[in-house]
Every structure is written in C-alpha cells, then in structure tokens.
Description:
- The complex is a heterodimer of chains A (about 325) and B (about 290).
- Chain A is mostly helical and about 325 residues long.
- Chain A has a domain at about 20-240.
- Chain A has helices at about 5-20, 30-50, 60-80, 80-105, 110-130, 135, 160-180, 185-195, 195-200, 205-230, 235-240, 245-255, 265-280, 290-305, 310-315, 330-335, and strands spanning about 140-145, 235.
- By secondary structure, chain B is an all-alpha fold.
- Chain B starts with a helix and ends in a 12-residue tail after the last helix.
Amino acid sequence: MKPLSKKEKTIIILLLAMITVLPFFLSSYLKHILILIFIWSAISTAWTFMGRFGMLSLGHGAVMGIGSFTTALLFNYYGLSPWIGMIIGALMAVIFFAGIGYFCFRFQVVSHYFAVISLVQTIVVFLVIIIFRNFTGGALGITLNRLGTSPLFFQFENKNYFYFIGLGYLLLTMYIWRKIDGSRLQRALTAIGDDEAAASSVGISIVKYKTIVAVISSFMTAVGAVIYSQYMMFLHPDVIASTDASLNIPFKAVLGGMYSLFGPFIGTSLVIGLEEYFRVLYGSSFIGWSMVGYGIALVIIIIFLPKGLYGTLSEKLGSKKSLKNILTPEKIESRT
Amino acid sequence: MIILLLNAFANGILYGGVLALLAFGMNLIFGVLNVIHLAYGQCVMVGLYVIYVLTVMLGIPLLLSCLIAIAVSSILGVLIHLLTVRPLLKAQLLNQLIALVGVMIVLENLALAIFGGDFLAIQLIFPVFSVGNVFIKISMLIPFVCSIVTLAFLWLFLNKTYTGLAIRAVVQDTETASLMAINTKRIYLITFVIGGILSGIAAACLAPIYSVHPHFGSAFTLTAFVIVVVGGCGNLVGGFIASFIIGIISQVGGVIFTTEIGELLVYVILMLVILFRPQGLLGVRVKA
Lengths: 336, 288
C-alpha cells in the first residue's frame, strides 16, 4: 500500500475530527442526509472494487436485495438478530452474485454481456421478491418490527448511532479500497482488465482473481444494504432491489470518478445533495423538470468529464500521485 | 386447460411479432455501433405520445399521425446519435451506458412533466375472431403482420442495396470496413435513422394495444435486448425467431404459473444463453 503524504494525512485527520463532532450540532434533517450519503457512497465504493477493473456489474441491486431482504425476513419472522442476519444475508448475496459471476468468468463473459447478465440478476431477484409477496410484502415493501432502541437487534432511535455506523462502514470500505489498491489483486486485475489473454498467458488466474474481487464487493454491498434498511426500518424492492437501484450505484461512482478513492463519495454527495435541494426547493410542483435537468447534466458530465468530477479535478490540480497506479480510461482505450 | 394453453400459444406468437418489431432497431444499433441503446423503449414511448397528441388532441387521422410519428422518431434517433452517442463512441462502455440512461431519464421525465403520470390510450376497438377455440385479437394481428412486412423490407434493404451492404460490413468489422472506403460515421448515422424509423413503426403498431405512460419504455428496452442477445447480436433472422420463442415462453409460462414466473423464465433463459451460447441461438461465433 502506498503511504499517504503528509498533506493528505493532515487533511484526513482534520476532516475526521470535524465529522466526528458534527452530529452534535446538526439538525436531524441534515444528519439524515449525511447518513444517506455515508451509506450510499460506501456502497458505491464497494461497487468500484469491481467497476474500476472493467467488470461492469449492474447486479448490485440483486446483492442489496438479497442481503437486506434475508436479514429483514429472518428478523421479522424468526426474530433473528440483524447482526447475525446481516452475515447470513451477505453470504447468500455473495453465493448468488459471485456464484453466477464465477460461471461468467469461467465462460469469459465480459463487457456488454457481463453488464447484461448482472442486470438480469437484479431483475430476477426483484421478480422473486414480487412473486413471494405473501412473505416479502411484494411491491408494497416490508416494515421491520419496531423494538425501540435495542443495540442487540441493530435498532437505534437516535440518528447519531447510525451516523457513526454509516461513517465507520464508509471508512471500512475505503480502507479495503486502499488495501486492494496496493495488493497483488489490483495488479493482477489491472492486467486482466487490459488484456485477458495476455494476463492468463503469464499465469494470472483470471477466474480466481475476478471471483475474489466479486466476493469482496458483493459482501460489502450487502452489508451496506442491511445498514440502510435498519436505518430506514422499511424495505422497498423499488429502492433496494430494482434496476434503478443497480443503475444508480455506478452513476454515483462514475459521476465522482471511479478510479479514485474519494470519487464515489464526491459523486454520491453531489447526487443526493442535488436531489434533496431540488426536492425541497420545488417540491412536487415541478415534478419531472428537475429530473430532466439531472439527466441532461449527467449526459454533459459524462461527455466532457469522462473521469468524473473528482478524477478530472485532481488531475487538473496536478495531484496525479493517487491516480498513478490505477487503470485509467486511456489505458482501457488503448487496448481497444 | 389445453384450450387455455393453445390460446396462450397463439397469443405468444402474436406477442412475439410485437417484440420482433421492437428488437429490430435495437439489434441493428447493437450490431453496428456495439452500443446498447438503453433509451430505445423511451423512443417508442415518444412515438406513442406523438400519435396520441395528433389523433386524440388534434383529430388528425390515425394513419397520417402514425407517419408523422415515424418521422419524429427518426429525428429523435438522429438527435440522440449526434448529442450523446457520437461524442462517446470511443468512450468506455460504462460511460456510454450511463449517458444513454441519462437520455432515458430525460425522455421519461419530459413525458411526466408534460403529460403527467396518467395512462393515455387511443380509444380504438378492434374485433376478435376465433379459429376453433383459439381467439385471436385483430389488434395483435396488425403488429404481427407489420413486423413481418418490416422485416422483409429490412432484409431487402440490407441485402440488395449498397448502403445495406456497407452496414453489414460494419457489423462484421468496423476497421476493415473503414479501410474499404466506407464512411463509418455516415453508416452510424444511417443506422440510428433506421433505428428511429423502426421505433416509430413499433409505436404505430403498439398504439392500438397499449396505453402510454411515462414509464412505458423501460420494460420493453430490456425485453428487446433479451431478444437481441438470445437471437445473436446483429443477426436479424435470429432475433426474429428469438422474439417468438420469448413471446411464447412468457405467455405460456404466464398461463401455467403466474405472470411474474413467465417473465422470470425469460430472464433465466437469457442467462443460460449468455453463459452457454454467447453467440446467440443462430449466431456465428466471432473471436474478438
């Protein structure tokens, strides 16, 4: 792992200190937004574990759906604590996602086809949730049994708890990002992303490395989904297991820049911030138009800033250090 | 039960005709540009709204408004090509996808902002006739016939004209085609125009069957893409056959189990096809 420079260290320490004291001064609405940003940017970061090596998964909606619904159903019907349910749910999500992924990697399903097959996973999970509507609540969603503040069952009435849980989870995913960034895994996957045939000819096991990173990514995503559902106390398949959900995760990552550590966080803050801003400013009187603007902005950003906001900015400012070892769009382009 | 199944089977064939029509444009665009046109269903939706506005609000005869809708859709295709696809031709796959999702969001929400979220339908009632115990809706038969006629014309266009030849060359190998003095940029544009026209025809055929609403398109985009993959990308005949397979499976599965399971079966088949026969049912495997 590359050590942080002194400047980066001070910035991170200052930021952390600020973030730690922040919840005691903020209104609960702002706290809510920050919690959402933490959780979703962590999920986005977990997505980039795979995404930045050219494995475009649109199946993280399936992962989130399996993880959170397993946890919620185990809790609601069998009274199993979400702490244990979270692990079971995440493992099931991993088995489903990385299991199908394993076959994809075996049969060399790449780029478009991998994107589609993962998107189909999301639809399958969505449909299964709808089919078993007597059990899962179907399209109406499911509300968790309320126990008040109960740390054993992962329920807290005070937002501060979730603020720190979300923050901790975000930091953990970022830590794993950095761990991967400095590891053999990253170099192997970069090589695979550049040219699969060449990578396998020098003895890199494509299937093994891709499966490992799929397991890590889907596990973290499922955990994030459980934290989100425990915070909201309500699971809706449209929000957590739909195609929209699985398209929104890469959105945020690409918007911020998926080749950099803080990219997904910046992208998520921007998306959630803008959404809330428009919602508060215009409410329902302008329904549709704000999303039209959002769509146009998205297209423009993708065309003119293909590396995302943070990626482009940090390159413009000359701090190329953090981007040096990473698979950049140019490298991908050069191989096609 | 057998009668029910027979009916579902007939329905599936007719539904397959509608799907084939939807899948044509998608198939061409994916074959030529290697871009998944995620906003394709939304283009069909725009066509449907145009038909609705012209016939119901302005009282223009249906056939004329269908023609106008086809023109509008082809213009929309050109706009999408020039504004989002062309700048991103060399970009990464994900960026292309997200830009097209952006287009999708724009079109869906424009419809929502202008027309509201209601279901709007052109009130047309077609008779139903029966062959033995099988009931066939005329409103489903029209798109079926239309799609076969369109496929025939498309086949003629692709096989008997120079432009068609050029398009097929680009499908096979873009770089070599451009070495053979084929203007690939022009071919891309033409493909999007054809795609737009096809989405307009699809809209015209769907107008009597479906009522239009802002979230009309997304389900159709995916089904169309499923057909493209199952049939083999860029393979029109394969796509044609695949659309009937998908139509029959989803309808018969819907009768035997439930509608959702019918849908589920379609996606499971897609997964199996991608895993075990990535070139599609009729496709020829090309090593990239």
